Each structure stands twice: as structure tokens, then as C-alpha cells.
Amino acid sequence: KKDIPAANFIMHEIHCSRNIEVCRYCSELIPKSEMKNHIESEHVQVTCKCRMKIEKCLLKDHEASACPLRPAVCQYCDIQLAFNKLQDHEIYCGARTERCGGCGHNIMVKDLKEHPRVCG
């Protein structure tokens, strides 16, 4: 999968066919002597803490952006909790009230950022 001089093509092709394999999972070119290790280290099925089975090489991306148990931070109180609990928590947390120092009214936390524009 690289450009090589035409004069070296036959020798290169022989070398590659003897020593290199294409991984059936990721299509990467892997030395034949390392293929077993590559499959075991990259493509073995592992179980995430959310109980989803996934290839080991995909686990970090899953944990960072797709896992329902990945850490997430509430926009209102900065507490960290599991992503799958975030929406319910933010509905509850944003509905709490705090007294406005300007007008003295109790304002829901979710409305505090917008309140200064309408505060008397």
C-alpha cells in the first residue's frame, strides 16, 4: 500500500507476501509473526463496566463518548455522576431556587443565567 520503485517491485511483492498479512478485522498491514498478538491485544472482546461487549481497541472511545456510565458533570451544581443519570439529575437540580440579590425573588437555578436581563 505504498509507492515503491518499479525496479524493486518483484522483490518487494515477494517479501510482503511472505511476511505481511492484512488483519481481517481492521485491514491494517501486520507482520505475520505479530498477527496473533495483534488480534489478542486489539480485537479481543472485552466487557465494559456497562456490560456491553466490545473490541478492546474500541473500548477507550466507547468509555469516553458512548458509555452510559461515563462520567458527566451537572451544569448547575458541578457534581459528577454517570451520564445515564445526568438528565434526571439536571431536571431536579435546575428546578431548585435561589434568591436573587438584586430583586429578592426566588429564581430557578436553570434560569439564573438569563435572569439578570429581566431583573428589575
Automatic annotation (TrEMBL):
What are the BP-aspect GO terms? Answer: negative regulation of innate immune response
Q: Which Gene3D superfamilies match?
A: Zinc/RING finger domain, C3HC4 (zinc finger)
A GO cellular component annotation here is: mitochondrion
Query: For the TRAFD1/XAF1 zinc finger domain, which residue ranges apply?
Result: 78-120
Q: Which GO terms describe its molecular function?
A: zinc ion binding
Describe the task this protein carries out.
Answer: Negative feedback regulator that controls excessive innate immune responses. Regulates both Toll-like receptor 4 (TLR4) and DDX58/RIG1-like helicases (RLH) pathways. May inhibit the LTR pathway by direct interaction with TRAF6 and attenuation of NF-kappa-B activation. May negatively regulate the RLH pathway downstream from MAVS and upstream of NF-kappa-B and IRF3.
- Protein name from the UniProt record: TRAF-type zinc finger domain-containing protein 1
Species per Swiss-Prot/TrEMBL record: Balaeniceps rex
Lineage per the UniProt record: Eukaryota, Metazoa, Chordata, Craniata, Vertebrata
